[in-house]
Each structure stands twice: as structure tokens, then as C-alpha cells.
Amino acid sequence: AFLHILAGASEYDELPVRHNEENYNKTLSEKVRYPVDMNHLDDPHVKANLLLQAHFSQLALPISDYNTDLKSVLDQSIRILQAMIDICANSGWLSSSLTCMRLLQMVMQGMWSDQDSSLWMVPCMNDDLIGSLTSRGIHTLHQLLDLPKGTLQSVIGNFPASRLSQDLQRFPRIQMNVRIQRKDSDGNKKASTLEIRLEKISKRNSSRALAPRFPKVKDEAWWLVLGNTSTSELLAVKRVSFTGRLITRMEVPSNITSLQDTKLILVSDCYLGLEQEHSIEQLGRR
């Protein structure tokens, strides 16, 4: 549904559908994951949808013009998705906001977030290596980055550990600490502020995103999303970027009486599967 909304944006009204391209669109429509409107194969929005799906599925495009068109579709999608995230966040929709954020990660990486393992973002990844990792219970990039150096070789079989650890150093590893500070405001009603410390513990000194399938250079940024996971209500969101470490604050809305099921989620704007979740309820009890 969100892919449909993205492809339907007015920014794509002018996407060129050249003479005879509906035939190429028909061929593409038979290969993509989700069906498109077969009665409007000459519609720019249908073409945008096909190009995005082809990008996520890493399909070969029929002619070189389509590569140019895909670049322009991806380029414009960033602004559209930022707007979609703003709308969802302002409406207080937690799961919709997270879905749009994941869609942005998919655009950056050219992968399906629900179908492709985030391990495929590692440049040297291959079928054998992914086989040895998953057989040992490692299914996400997050798990792989958290592995101690010593156990890396035992988990990856015959694959050269130096090559893998070199690739892993290109991803950010972030340590997140959250403290809750309560302060009395008027009428002794206690408002809470979260103090959030973020620190990159990887040895890389660049904030450049590793996104080889996205046509432009991009710097990494993150969202801090405060939400109630049982009611799927988004309480606050903050966008941050930093190179070494960052201390930032977020207000907990004063009408929130219980912090039960309240989580602070750190979401990348360019990598799949690197989310971190902290339960605020536990902090509140200290």
C-alpha cells in the first residue's frame, strides 16, 4: 500500500513513458512481486511502481533509458518519503511511520526489507557465507556486527575473516544509552525528559552511507522514535545525525501517565535491520 502511495505521488506525473514502452512495462509487470494496473501500462505512476519494484528485486531493466528513469525515480523518492514520514508522525501512527522509514531503507539499498536478509548489504556476502551464518543462528547484520572478533572465524567456515571484518567496519555500530529525568513543572505534575546518548563504537571515521545501489552519495542519519508498541501510537520523533557521539533530549508528552509498552527505537535512514529498541518502562522504575 505504501509503495502504491509513493508511486502515486505527483512528482512522477512527468516521468516519461515513451513510444512502445507499455510493452516493456508489460514484460516487467510479469516479473515484479506485486501486481500493477494492467489497463494503464502507459501511465507514469505505473511505470514508477514497476521501476521501484525492479530496484528492490534487483531485476535487469529492459533498456538503458530505464536506468536513467530509475535514477530520477529514486532521487525524487527521498523527498516524497520524508513527507510521508512527517504525515504519519504528525498523525501519531507508529507502525505506518516505521513502514515508511523501512521503505526509505529499501530505496537506499535496493532490497526488500521483509524478504531479503540484511546480511546482503555486506559487499562480500555470498550464498555459502549466508548459509554458514544462518545455520549458526545469525540472520541479521545487527547480530553479525555484535559478534566478538574471536568467534567470527568459527562462524563463517572457510570464508576469509579479514575480508569480512574489513567490510563490517564500513557499517556504523551504535551504542545507545537512555536515562529518564523527571522534573516538577507547574502543579507538581511530573514531566519526563529522556536523555539519550548515542556513540559510534565502530572505528570508521566516515558518516558516508554504504549504499552502492543508490545513485547519489548520502550521509547516514537516524530517527529516534518514541512510541507505544501495544497501541501503535507514536509519541515523539527526532531526526539526528552525528559523527562520533551525541547527547540529545526528547520530551515525553505530559499526558502520558504510564510508560508501560513505551519504547524508544533507533532507526537508520539507510540501512536495513540495524534498529535498536529500548524499553522506557524499565527506566521509569529505577
UniProtKB/TrEMBL annotation:
Gene Ontology cellular component annotations, sorted alphabetically: endoplasmic reticulum; membrane; nucleus
Domain of life from the UniProt record: Eukaryota
SUPFAM superfamilies in UniProt: E set domains (SSF81296), Sec63 N-terminal domain-like (SSF158702)
Gene3D superfamilies: C2 domain, Sec63 N-terminal domain-like domain
GO molecular function, one term: 3'-5' DNA helicase activity
Keyword Ion transport tagged: no
Domain SEC63: 1-282
Keyword Membrane: yes
Main location: endoplasmic reticulum
InterPro entries reported in the protein's UniProt record: C2_domain_sf, Ig_E-set, Sec63-dom
Entry keyword set: Chaperone, Endoplasmic reticulum, Membrane, Transmembrane, Transmembrane helix
Membrane topology annotation: Multi-pass membrane protein
Location in or out of the cell: Endoplasmic reticulum; Membrane
Listed Pfam families: Sec63
Protein name, UniProt field: SEC63 domain-containing protein
UniProt source species: Microthlaspi erraticum
